[in-house]
Amino acid sequence: MFNFLRCSLFFILTNITYTQTQVLDASWKEITHLKDSSWFATIEAKAVAGNVLLFQRDIGGWPKNIQMHKPFSEGKKRELNELKSIPRGCTIDNGATTQEMIFLSKMYQQTKNGQYRTAFLKGLDYLLDAQYENGGWPQFYPLRKGYYTHITYNDDAMVNVLRILKDIAGSKRFVHLDIPVEKVKKARLAFEKGIDCILKTQYVQNGKLTVWCAQHDENTLLPAKARSYELPSLSGSESAKIVLLLLSVENPSDEVVAAIESAVKWFKETKIEGLREERVYNDNGKLIKKIMVPDAGAKPLWARFMELEDNRPFFCDRDGIKKESIEEIGEERRNGYKWYTDEPLEVLVKYPKWKAKIMGKAKTKGDIDIYNMVVAKDGTGDFTSIQEAINSAKGFPDRRVTIKIKNGIYKEKVEVYEWNTHMSIIGEDKDKTIITYDDYFERLNLGRNSTFHTPTFLVQGNDFYAENLTFQNTAGQKGQAVALAVNADRVLIENCKIKGNQDTLYTTGEGFRQYYKDCYIEGTTDFIFGQATALFQNSVIHSKSDSFITAASTSKNMEFGYVFKGCKLTGTPGLGKVYLGRPWRTYAKTVFINCFMGDHIIPEGWDNWSNEKAMGETFYAEYNCSGPGFQPGKRVGWSYQIKKSEAKKYTVGNILGNQKKEGKPWYLNFRK
């Protein structure tokens, strides 16, 4: 029994020691924000608190970049005691002073040791004394010559101070410290002055409010230079934390509201899309290279420095000379500095809820109009995901459901289900509203039918309408990879881009009618394929390699398969062996009418896909086409050049059917 108890006790003590060691292995910042409140009552925490008290100067502040939780020698401790009366080095930079105050607050809450409360209050006095009359804070106090006297937003220094003052003045976060009333009043006044300083330093560009620089001159309040590579500019990083602070202000004034609205507008206008930071490490885990690579699915970024005049990103080495790209500066600065940030994304996500609260009409899911929804990547709509909006729509609705998509890159697989009938999905701009994914046959590896699982966007609900969108599959040259698959009847895709490589657009469903109008469709092999009756009108059909444009699988009893009217067939320069089509199934029908064909179209025009029977059963035809690729005299003998009288039957109504709804043909009834 004794041995069992001894082993159990050993296990418990070992486990506690291991857990505490894990805590002490964290950074000082992580420890100050530790959520496990019980740890602050441990022997280890008290030892760390002893270091914190030792580093605090008599003036109340702390130096920066000290890992307070690491052990110090007795000699170092004696040295620190001798430095107590010397205020040099006290700062709010890199979280100094504010982090130590947060730590001491937690220590006092758990131990009620008066030393910690006293030290916290001294820290508060330091922050109050360091504030300029204009409401800003310098990086160092007492003042240190150079750029250190500037009002410092850099690395969120002033925001960190204001958050503590705000909590002292108006929340329960520090109530356990029983802060004297007069100090609470001073904290409230200092916070209000700080907000006023923020409003006064917001940069005006061509008469419009924008955001902030990392530091502002303490006299003129204008953007100011710090280190040689930190020139006056607009900051995507520091400005985000400033706006998040403003969003937390209770009962904001009109000036605060205007500041937020202007900054959010600026963030939306200056976001950088399609770019991702890639890091390379050596065998020892050291960062040796930082490059920016194109990535259509990457989340938006903002530059650390942007021109005051026109918001253009710039980069700078220690020579102080502006460069246009990160690749133009030396590795030391390129790898050792954060040149891009995604922090404004948090602002854009939180802004709609704040806006709704300010307007007095905060939305809940129950408030959303299931017939009219907005999707916005930046959080300014009802949803940030297209699929989430579709999932919220009424099934088999009694009237049309319209989902508007704001500009952005939406990396998601989307499915419009069979029950999502009468749905319209309308983008803001076809070049800027992009739905993308990168599945391909071999990645999914689901057997011989894997192709049909690859679509980025799949439509199965009848009476579907899409406009002003880009559907793309970015898998690259990796085999079958569908961008858009439509397995539905009465579908109109208008003014859209459909981009991919092999098998870009899958149009299917026996007897289903689909209309692709004013679109751009690109690919390599069989990039328009399927069973549906589909009309392509006034569209650009772009081949990216020598291969086949269409692979129709029209059913035997269908009068029309694929019909291209007034389209322009283009190709990547250098191509010369692109076929108009080949039969995926024996009775394929494909007709080109009044189309321009580039010189990439092979004179023979058509291929039988090694199917001798198809040569007698397919219907491949052209009428009144033009361009260097239209060579009717050299076409394969089993294709047709139809007459004008025969071409007359290829009207929109005949091809798509004249079924009327509300007095109009179905393809004219999507938009009122």
From TrEMBL:
Its GO biological process annotations read: cell wall modification; pectin catabolic process
| One Pfam family from the record | Pec_lyase
Instruction: Report the protein name in the record.
Output: Pectinesterase
Q: Which residues form the Pectinesterase catalytic domain?
A: 372-657
EC class, as a word, reads hydrolase
Q: Which family does it belong to?
A: Belongs to the pectinesterase family.
Instruction: Name the reaction it catalyses.
Output: [(1->4)-alpha-D-galacturonosyl methyl ester](n) + n H2O = [(1->4)-alpha-D-galacturonosyl](n) + n methanol + n H(+)
GO CC annotation: cell outer membrane
Give the pathway annotation.
Glycan metabolism; pectin degradation; 2-dehydro-3-deoxy-D-gluconate from pectin: step 1/5
Q: What is its EC number?
A: 3.1.1.11
How far does the signal peptide extend, from start to end residue?
Answer: none
